[in-house]
Amino acid sequence: MRQLETLAREAQSFPQAAPAMVEQPVRWHGRGAALSTDEAEVARVMQICNACRYCEGFCAVFPAMTRRLEFGKADLNYLANLCHNCGACLHACQYAPPHEFAVNVPQAMAKVRLQTYTEYAFPAVLGKLYRRNGLALSLATAAGLALFLALTVMLTGGLFHAPMAGNFYAVFPHNTLALMFGAVFGFAMLALGIGAARFWRDVSPGAASGAAVAEAAHDALRLRYLDGGHGKGCNNADDAFTLWRRRFHHFTFYGFMLCFAATCVATLYHYLLGQQAPYPFWSAPVLLGTAGGIGLLIGPAGLLWLNLKRHPLQGDAAQKPMDRGFIALLLLTSATGLALLAGRDTGAMALLLAVHLGVVMALFLTLPYGKFAHGVYRSAALLKWSIEKRQPDKLRLGAD
Ligand code: SF4
Ligand code: SF4
Question: Nearest bound ligand to CA 11?
Answer without folding.
Answer: 1
